[in-house]
Amino acid sequence: MNSGVILIKSAFWMVLAAFLCCCACACLTAGPSENQTSGGPSVIDKTPRDEPANVTFENAWQKLSYYESTGALNLTGVTIHQIYGTGVDARGNASSWIVGVQQGNTSSLLVYDRESWRQVSWGESFTSPYITFDQILLPTEIYDTNSQTIENTMNANGVKDSDIDLSDGVYTISIRSSNGLSQLRYNATTGELLS
Question: How far apart are CA 100 and CA 88, in angstroms?
């Protein structure tokens, strides 16, 4: 047999062997695809995706400035009248923040849900005075300053989160459980426990 033909046949068999080896390795190391079956039901990944982490009001508010700088939200002339956090843990991190704002004669709610801000129309005017951040303690500071009282109240009620509302110069922390509702009220300027 011609040595050229032998060389071509040998090369062909070597390439074929390498190809089959690669295919076998890929089949052994790859998991089943969503539609692939192996004699039984198909395997579908039902692993829950991680929830975005709860966030402090301060971090959420910093993200709001990005929305304003890109023009996604127009906050010109806005005054803040209420701050409300839901699902707030003992460190002051919330699953959502709602800020009641007035812009001229128009009221709206700025809503942050751990990922983004959106503006929702609000039909009522806010009657509480506007909030100036440099004259109050921020929500995280209230939780930090009063952590022992807040944690003890949460533990006594068997819950891990609360709601916080700032209106009329007072923070109200509401802790709901099967036992009912417990509330702690703090002066927004000093952090002093009111009731």
Answer: 18
Q: Is the pLDDT of residue 173 over 50?
A: yes
Domain count, the chain: 1
Residue among 168, 180, 72, 158 nearest 116 (CA):
72
Note whether residue 40 is domain-resident: no
Domain assignment present for 48: no
Q: What pTM was computed for the model?
A: 0.70
Contact 57, 92 (CB under 8 A): yes
Residues forming beta bridges with residue 52, ordered by sequence position: none
Closest CA to 103 of 73, 60, 133: 73
In the numeric block, which tokens belong to residue 151? 């944690």
pLDDT in tens, 76-132: 999 999 999 999 999 999 999 999 999 988 999 999 987 889 999 998 989 889 999
Domain that holds residue 143: 57-187
